Known about the structure:
Helices cover 48% and strands 1% of the residues. It has helices at residues 2-21, 38-60, 74-85, 99-109, 124-137, 144-156, 187-199, 208-211, 217-225, 275-287, 295-306, 321-338, 350-361, 380-397, and strands at 260-262, 269-271.
Amino acid sequence: MEKKIFVRFWLTSIVALFLLIGGVGRSVAAPAKIVLTDNQQSLRNEIQHAIDRGFAFLLANQNSNGWWQTADHPAVTALVLTAFNGDPMDRYRGAKTPDALKKGYAFVTSKVKADGSICVTNLPTYNTSISMMALLSANDTRFEPTIRNARRFLVGVQRDFGEPGKLDSPYDGGFGYGLPDDKNADMSNSIWALEALYYSKRLVEDRPQAEGKDLNWAAAIHFLESCQNLPGYNKQGWASDDPKEKGGFIYNTGRSNAGSETNAVTGRVTWHSYGSISYAGMMSYLYADLRPDDPRVKAVAAWLNKNYTLEENPGMGGAGLFFYYHTMAKALALAGSRDPKLIGPKEANWREELGLKLIQLQQKDGSWANTNARWWEKESALVTAYAILSLETVWRSLGSQI
């Protein structure tokens, strides 16, 4: 039985990773042949054209020292590198890697610290996690020691407040910024960390003694529960079964970026669920290998389907819109690879709809940018990477029955 469960997990994670960035590492197998309709093939061609225009913009706007947008946060450069690595035509990896991308890798790896983190001075969880994904997606064994060390760093900064080893805080099991004085954990840091740890599992599964302590996935699930509006699993008083909120996620147990409301009679506070972080929540549960029919997974899937839209980040308006598209594409591709029933009727055409939406939003110079500046989304390098990664996931998912 255990062997069957492992094989099922291994196969679904490979399919998900292929859909995400076109395969990472030596364990990725070729997917089954996909038969496209004429309309899907036409859309694929349009998506590839949009991706190519985005790549041209990025190559024309790289700093001479190898980074994109900022030298203070290698995560932005790493996202760009991951986007190039996910090219559906696979023109930028291995022996085909152009000098511009080699300079990008050199910049990212120059920020490796003695403790394994990959950052400059701050935001080590974000920067390390996203940089790991860039190095994983390069499919280059030379990066494996760096990835292993970064993985150990992330495992070491999983939060455990209160009494060590006991899940006595709603923040236990999550990730904060990765600093010694972190006071809590949040879904934003946690999704990036869990993603990097999930996709790097193959590097450590056959050598647990050499790697030492691994992530406490049960504690991670505890943290996720503590951020979900789902009474019965989340024991905190704010967890709401109001149909508008039930199943969705918030930023962390003490805050929702979508705000809150207070009952005038009882004084009870309800934190509003919102879109991008709810897709992150569904992904995180699946990374933790919860079954698709688990009530926690089904609840967030139902909330997301009910609130499906491409016109805004539900609950947030235009704030974080392109991160929302990015998490939507990854989450729905992963969910479909686990169980097609997780994709609801409103989301049924998400591939075509998201692909066309992003094509429409592309600017004349090939870039993308948000009109809302929150979370750096007026920065064209970051947002162009988000958009390209989303389109690549759509391209690979078109015609798929998963």
